[in-house]
């Protein structure tokens, strides 16, 4: 009888440890976004000169706003580089609405829409991922511009183990 | 006797579950809070050797399982070059683990370092709803 009581307590302890471990452990499901350059097989750079495509530039500001510009319109309006730019979007929903509207215009003209994501050096990584998500949700082809101008940042200090 | 046998088996099952869970879970303490993505698909298995590079919001790079802190792209370049030399002919890939609130400039710096070394790179994201 005493032996059985011991076993039951042992089960209790086992279960407590098991569920305690389940509770404290953080199971994080991660994935990855392939970045262009270095490995053309996984993330082929988009050909900007290809016909039948219209490019939308999504600028990510340091303040967290998204600005959508029709690449061609912006190039034509040399005096005002921001010509053709949308009102800044604050949320993913607003950005999606703008992209849907522009895509419709492109579709009417028989063009395929490609989104060029152009983050400001000071904009947060999460914002870039948000724009990618919006593009994926709308099945829009997207390309992240990694050739943004970056001023030298931080010192070249020694490695700190 | 039959009851006792049942209890012993039950204990076995609980312990197997416990130690199984402990062994498969990667208990890794990380200070990088990854950006969250709602649309990124589950990743395919990678055949390459993966080198992880963490980026803190202040721009410092965390390498060697986040045990070593590097400042500046130059140091990162030197570290990755030495890693590549160690790996030899095996294909290598860099997985950038930038914190969600890291400015893009640091991610771009890390990506440029990878390009300079000719190593493919990918940005790691947390899949939405991936937390237990």
Description of the molecule:
Chain A is of the alpha/beta class and 161 residues long. Chain A has a domain at 53-144. Chain A is 37% helix and 19% strand. Chain A has helices spanning 2-24, 71-76, 92-108, 125-137; strands at 30-35, 53-60, 66-70, 112-119, 141-144. In chain A, helix 3 packs across helix 4 (125-137). The radius of gyration of chain A is 25 Å and the shape is elongated. By secondary structure, chain B is α/β, with parallel strands linked by helices. Chain B has a domain at 36-127: 2-Layer Sandwich (Nucleotidyltransferase, domain 5). Chain B has helices spanning 2-24, 73-87, 104-117, and strands spanning 36-37, 49-55, 61-63, 68-70, 92-98, 121-127. In chain B, strands 1-6-5-2-3-4 form a 6-stranded mixed sheet, covered by helices on one side. The longest helix of chain B has 23 residues, at 2-24. The mean pLDDT of chain B is 84. Classes of the chains: A alpha/beta (161), B alpha/beta (132). At the A-B interface, helix 1, strand 1 and helix 4 of A face helix 1, strand 1, strand 4, helix 2 and strand 5 of B.
Features:
heterodimer, A: 161 residues, alpha/beta, four-stranded mixed beta sheet, 4 helices, 37% helix, elongated, disordered C terminus, B: 132 residues, six-stranded mixed beta sheet
């Amino acid at each position: 009888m005493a032996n059985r009581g011991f076993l039951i307590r042992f089960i209790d302890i086992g279960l407590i440890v098991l569920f305690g471990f389940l509770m404290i452990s953080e199971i994080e499901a991660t994935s990855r976004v392939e970045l262009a350059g270095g490995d053309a097989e996984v993330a082929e750079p988009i050909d900007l000169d290809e016909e039948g495509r219209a490019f939308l530039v999504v600028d990510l500001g340091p303040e967290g706003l998204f600005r959508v510009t029709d690449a061609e319109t912006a190039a034509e309006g040399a005096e005002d580089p921001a010509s053709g730019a949308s009102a800044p979007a604050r949320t993913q929903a607003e950005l999606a609405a703008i992209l849907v509207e522009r895509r419709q215009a492109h579709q009417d003209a028989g063009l395929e829409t490609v989104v060029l994501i152009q983050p400001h050096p000071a904009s947060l990584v999460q914002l870039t991922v948000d724009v990618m998500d919006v593009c994926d949700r709308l099945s829009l082809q997207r390309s992240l511009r990694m050739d943004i101008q970056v001023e030298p940042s931080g010192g070249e200090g020694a490695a700190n183990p | 006797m039959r009851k006792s046998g049942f209890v012993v088996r039950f204990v076995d099952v609980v312990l197997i579950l416990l130690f199984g869970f402990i062994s498969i879970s990667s208990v890794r303490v990380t200070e990088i809070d990854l950006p969250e993505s709602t649309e990124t698909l589950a990743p395919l298995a990678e055949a390459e050797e993966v080198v992880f590079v963490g980026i803190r919001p202040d721009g410092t790079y965390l390498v060697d399982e986040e045990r070593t802190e590097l400042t500046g792209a130059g140091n990162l370049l030197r570290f990755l070059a030495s890693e590549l030399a160690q790996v030899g002919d095996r294909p290598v890939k860099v997985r950038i683990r930038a914190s969600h609130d890291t400015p893009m400039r640091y991610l771009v710096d890390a990506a440029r370092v990878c390009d300079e070394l000719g190593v493919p790179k990918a940005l790691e994201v947390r899949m939405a709803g991936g937390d237990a």
